[in-house]
Structure to design on (496 residues):
């Protein structure tokens, strides 16, 4: 029996329309995933062939072995050495700047062909990597602030804190004696932060490789060494275990040739010899010398933000519509997406996408691509809730009125509901844009030279931490304030 049209029953959309909505959302989602991931799947995972370019990972915050100069060039003992060996052996190198921990993970994930980053050759690391012949013999020293007269030996560390850099020879040595001398070890991802920990007074000393300490002291970082060199260990160039044996042989052959020719000693003298600092130490001199690198970092930050927020908006619309759909399956998909990317840290997502997925599926992905995917998915989860909230903020009577006039569900959503919802979503959208812009700083762990990473790299070379972070903070403040004012202006216009 056909129901009377005058009854109070709410009309349900025809099954065909619900199916079309589900197909539309699924199609949009599939297209977006292809856009995000498709290009990376075509990249080969094999090492470079002879005569071609090898991708070499490094840590650009470990002067004098690797850092960036004022022109943005990667320089240092390791950088000059690997380029000279490449010239001698007939291959080119593509330097991939990463943090030390990320560089090692990149080798294990076959994202790069090798790593040179002042890496000590140890028995534990030999289980995971194949090493070259040692190209530099280092050792650990302890350093304190130059005006510190209380700490003169390990015995004076009892009950105090010392800072080290993750995965370094200094970290291993400090942890090996901490129980004997009764001090606490705190670890950091880069050398500049390790030194800043002591400058703030939270720690009293650092354990670091002696050439790094001597270079920093020569640059006026305010430290002095107080112990003899300990635990000498050779630095080595490394490749993934059982892979790139030919590259390792070329490195060893080139190193032997450079030593025989005297070029090896010339490289060491360039960075460890007597040098006079001619840099302008004033804040204005620092701004002038670092402006090109900071502007390049700001450009990368804005690029990552704009591209990521674009994809995040599409994801937000797709999953936002899924969240308010009458289909239980679409609602479940939308809810799962939001729960996963709002319920896990952005840093974990970045490492999983950049290292985990390529290693599992056997393809390579650029750091910028991984960064955009990470930010897009993370911001997309928050945009989903913004879209969902905007749609639910529209009175339900609007949908019912349009449907009673015979207008379909999709046309009603497109012409009636979404235009009203967008007006309430714009301030939240601008706010998410600001949040995503600040979140780009986390991508520095992937070696992307955005604004924060540019600041870290500069500090690694000149040790002007306070001045540099002040400049970086001001740049962020100016950009974010401009976006905030834009948001306020749009909101006022919408109210009018």
């Amino acid at each position: 029996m056909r129901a009377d049209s005058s009854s109070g029953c709410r009309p349900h959309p025809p099954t065909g329309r619900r199916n079309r909505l589900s197909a539309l959302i699924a199609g949009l989602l599939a297209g977006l995933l292809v856009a995000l991931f498709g290009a990376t799947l075509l990249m080969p995972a094999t090492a470079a062939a002879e005569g071609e370019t090898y991708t070499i990972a490094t840590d650009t915050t470990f002067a004098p072995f690797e850092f960036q100069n004022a022109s943005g060039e990667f320089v240092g003992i390791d950088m000059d050495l690997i380029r000279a060996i490449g010239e001698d052996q007939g291959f080119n190198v593509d330097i991939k700047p990463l943090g030390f921990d990320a560089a090692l993970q990149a080798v294990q994930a076959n994202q790069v062909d090798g790593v040179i980053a002042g890496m000590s050759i140890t028995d534990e690391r030999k289980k995971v990597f194949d090493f070259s012949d040692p190209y530099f013999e280092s050792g650990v020293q302890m350093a304190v602030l130059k005006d510190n007269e209380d700490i003169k030996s390990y015995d004076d560390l009892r009950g105090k804190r010392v800072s080290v850099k993750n995965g370094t020879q200094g970290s291993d040595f400090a942890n090996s004696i901490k129980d004997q001398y009764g001090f606490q070890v705190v670890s950091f991802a880069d050398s500049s932060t390790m030194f800043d920990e002591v400058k703030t007074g939270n720690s009293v000393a650092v354990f670091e490789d002696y050439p790094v300490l001597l270079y920093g002291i020569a640059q006026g970082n305010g430290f002095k060494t107080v112990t003899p060199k300990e635990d000498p260990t050779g630095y080595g160039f490394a490749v993934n275990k059982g892979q790139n044996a030919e590259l390792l042989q070329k490195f060893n052959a080139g190193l032997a040739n450079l030593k025989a020719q005297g070029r090896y000693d010339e490289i060491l003298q360039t960075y460890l010899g007597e040098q006079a600092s001619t840099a302008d130490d004033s804040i204005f001199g620092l701004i002038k010398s670092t402006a090109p690198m900071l502007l390049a970092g700001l450009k990368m930050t804005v690029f990552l933000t704009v591209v990521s927020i674009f994809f995040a908006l599409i994801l937000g619309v797709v999953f936002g519509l899924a969240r308010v759909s009458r289909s239980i399956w679409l609602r479940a998909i939308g809810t799962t997406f939001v729960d996963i990317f709002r319920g896990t840290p952005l840093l974990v997502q970045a490492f999983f996408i950049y290292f985990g997925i390529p290693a599992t599926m056997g393809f390579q992905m650029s750091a910028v691509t991984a960064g955009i995917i990470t930010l897009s998915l993370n911001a997309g989860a928050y945009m989903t809730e913004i879209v969902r909230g905007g749609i639910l903020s529209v009175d339900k009577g609007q949908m019912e009125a349009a449907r009673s006039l015979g207008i379909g569900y999709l046309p009603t959503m497109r012409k009636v509901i979404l235009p009203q919802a967008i007006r309430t979503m714009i301030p939240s959208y601008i706010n998410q844009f600001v949040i995503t812009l600040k979140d780009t700083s986390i991508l520095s762990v992937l070696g992307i030279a955005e604004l924060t990473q540019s600041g870290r790299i500069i500090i690694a070379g000149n040790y002007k931490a306070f001045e540099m972070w002040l400049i970086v903070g001001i740049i962020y403040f100016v950009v974010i304030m401009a976006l905030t004012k834009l948001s306020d202006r749009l909101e006022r216009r919408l109210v009018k």
